[in-house]
Amino acid sequence: MNYYKARELADRDGHSGGFHFTCRNDDRVWPVGACRDHPPHPTAEDAERCFYDHELAQPVVRALLADQMLRCGVCNEFTAQTIRAGMHLFDSTVVCETCVPLGDDDEARRVLADLHPFTTGILIVSSW
Ligand SMILES: [Zn+2]
Ligand SMILES: [Zn+2]
Predict the structure, then answer these.
(1) Is 101 in the same domain as 69?
(2) How far, rounded to the nearest angstrom, does the alpha carbon of residue 127 sit from its chain's CA centroid?
(3) Closest ligand to 70 CA?
(4) Do 7 and 50 fall within a single domain?
(5) Span 25-84, pLDDT tens digits
(6) 38-49 pLDDT, tens per residue?
(7) How far is residue 74's CA from residue 60's CA, in Å, rounded to a whole number?
(8) Ligand 1 midpoint to CA 40 (Å)
(9) Which domain holds residue 43?
(10) Nearest-angstrom CA–CA distance, 116 and 82
(11) What spacing in Å lies between the alpha carbon of 100 and ligand 2's midpoint?
(12) Residue 49: per-residue pLDDT
């Protein structure tokens, strides 16, 4: 299992070295998302917001539900369309093609952020 969360880094003297958003698997820990490429953040919340923004910036993927229609998270009409971005925070989200027209990825991200607002204390447990 992989455990994703913001973790405090210790510097050589054991003092706080700031926070990265990280993944832990057994005793290995590594930074994920944009945290792979920059120095630690001053707070855990900053690191969580970094991961949130990074997930939301991933390509928007559309899919159709196979055998069912569900209610659009915005207008409540029945639809088979789902959208997601990234791997964890913005999972398959039901929205109709009127609320998020095909090809309008900016609107898709706006709706995903609306339906999945940022919260602190992100902890994700997943097999990938
Ligand atoms: Zn970061
Ligand atoms: Zn809709």
Answers:
(1) yes
(2) 16
(3) 2
(4) yes
(5) 999 999 999 999 999 999 999 999 999 999 999 999 999 999 999 999 999 999 999 999
(6) 999 999 999 999
(7) 17
(8) 7
(9) 2-56+121-126
(10) 14
(11) 7
(12) 98
Are 64 and 42 within one domain? Answer: no
Distance 53 CA to ligand 2 centre (A): 24
14 & 42 share domain: yes
Nearest-ligand number for the alpha carbon of 6:
1
Find the 76 Cα to ligand 1 centroid distance in Å: 35
Residue with tokens 């898709």: 108
Ligand closest to 55 (CA) is 1
Total number of domains constituting the chain: 2
How far does the centroid of ligand 2 lie from the alpha carbon of residue 72, in Å? 5
Q: 55 CA to middle of ligand 2, Å?
A: 23
CA 57–ligand 2 middle distance (angstroms)? 22
Torsion, CA 107, CA 110, CA 114, CA 120, rounded to 10: 160
Q: How far apart (Å, rounded) are the C-alpha atoms in residues 5 and 123?
A: 5
Smallest-distance ligand from the CA of 72: 2
101, HSE (Cβ side, Cα atoms, 13 Å): 1
Ligand at minimal distance from the CA of 69 is 2
